Structure formats: C-alpha cells, structure tokens
Amino acid sequence: xxxxxxxxxxxxxxxxxxxxxxxxxxxxxxxxxxxxxxxxxxxxxxxxxxxxxxxxxxxxxxxxxxxxxxxxxxxxxxxxxxxxxxxxxxxxxxxxxxxxxxxxxxxxxxxxxxxxxxxxxxxxxxxxxxxxxxxxxxxxxxxxxxxxxxxxxxxxxxxxxxxxxx
Length: 166
Fold this sequence. Notes:
five-stranded mixed sheet; 28% strand
C-alpha cells in the first residue's frame, strides 16, 4: 500500500489526513458514486471489485445514550444487542441520521470511522481480523481507504467483537 504524497494530503478528507498523520500505510480507492444505488457499501464493493466481506460500513448507534460507532461488513447487518454488549451497555438503537452526520462531520454514505469531528467509542466486527486488509469509507461517497484491520483498530481505539450478522 502506498503512502500519500503531500500534494495528495492537501486534497484529502479528515480520514485520509488522520491516516497520513499517523504514518499508517493505506490505499485510496475512488469510484463514481451512483445516487440511485440502493446500498452505499455494496456499491463500493462492486465498483472496486472487492469481496463484500472485506468492505466495511460505518454505522452510528445510540447505546444507552452514548453515540457509538459500529464497523461491520457490508455483506451483513449490525446486531444491536451484540454492539451494546461489546461496550458494556444494555440497549442499542440506530442513531438519528442527522445527529450522526453532525457528530461525525460526515454525510450518510460517507461516514468514516477515522477523522471524526468527535471521538466516539468504536466497535470493529471481529471478522475484520480474518483479512490482511479491509476497506472503509474515506469520508465521502465514492471514496474508500484500504488498510489493515489492526491499523484501523489502533487508530480508532476500537473494541474487536462479533457485532455483525449475515
């Protein structure tokens, strides 16, 4: 994976800037986003030619009143009970999309687990550790970053737990 040059950093998103600042190896993948596609994550996997189990979506949930980030494969769904348990909570619901956008600084379909406006507790699905690299949003629709799951876990201080379901 290639590190980005200074020129590439200048036009980057908060996510790519965070990765560059941390000195993490990553690759940026861009594609033309189709607003008519029913799933941002599946669209990314198709456009990049990557298996959907290696492309992860970033979801924001409310766990007992605390916004929490869940990173799960686009091929599956988030198990809210498992997410709550992973952070020691009792109940989780999906966060209001407007609140998620305002809190993270990203738009829906482009929310990245990296470089968020406010640092939120993060849980990465355990299946990520079965891949040498995974892809997550780079902070806007049509832009993904590929990096090691270990790097993502370290930078987001994520808990690794089985929070996804098929």
